[in-house]
Design brief:
By secondary structure, the chain is mainly alpha-helical. It has helices at 2-30, 35-61, 67-75, 81-105, 122-145, 150-164, 173-179, 193-214.
Length: 217
């Protein structure tokens, strides 16, 4: 059963990165320099993919596809520490594989490192705290009120968060690491990955303290 769960987490995370990086490449190619149009394409494609993979794979693994989400569930005692570690490892590895698969589809060099997309500063860092907190708010609020609506809620939230956060809402350590392996529209300079992940973990901590009280039975 754990193998089935890990396969679901790996496939879902890979598909998520394919949607993020692939739509970024396609959007930037077709937008003729209009960054707003490229970001809109990126956001909509990511939101659509989230709805699909959460709906399809949620009954198997819980549809985390995100070490921050896995950590939040582990802190609640909903997943064992051992399985949580396995989830995170698979998410990171398959996220990178998803990026490489995307490069292959778009006839790009498979092995890349983001050298041009710099994402740093207080605005971006604070955005990652808020984006991660907001994602967990959506998930745990949905579990409390309407579990069947979570796929749509997460997809809609991330689509919006691309626009209302300065960082374009990574909110996912596996996605952050994988995007460092792509020198495209969705990339992130590797030297900035560590601070993004730290902010995401702070977001998990704040969410755990606040949301377990807000949404307790």
């Amino acid at each position: 059963m754990s193998v089935q769960k890990l396969a679901a987490e790996g496939l879902g995370t890979a598909m998520l990165l394919i949607s993020v990086v692939g739509s970024g490449i396609m959007g930037e190619t077709l937008a003729n320099g209009n960054v707003a149009i490229a970001l809109l394409a990126n956001a909509v494609a990511t939101g659509c993919m989230l709805y699909v993979i959460i709906t399809a794979l949620g009954p198997i693994s819980g549809a985390h596809f995100n070490p921050a989400v896995t950590l939040a569930f582990a802190l609640r005692g909903d997943i064992t520490p051992g399985l949580a570690v396995q989830y995170v490892v698979v998410q990171i590895i398959c996220g990178i594989l998803g990026v490489w698969a995307t490069h292959l589809m778009f006839d790009q060099s498979i092995l890349q490192s983001s050298a041009t997309i710099h994402r740093s500063g207080t605005a971006q860092w604070s955005s990652e705290i808020m984006a991660t907190f907001g994602l967990l708010f959506v998930i745990f609020g949905g579990l409390r009120s309407r579990p069947e609506a979570i796929p749509a809620m997460v997809g809609i939230y991330i689509t919006g968060a691309y626009w209302f956060t300065a960082s374009t809402s990574f909110a996912n350590p596996a996605v952050t690491i994988a995007r460092g392996f792509s020198d495209t529209f969705a990339g992130i300079y590797p030297g900035h990955i560590g601070m993004f992940i730290l902010m995401q973990l702070i977001g998990v901590g704040v969410a755990h303290l606040a949301l377990t009280r807000l949404f307790k039975d």
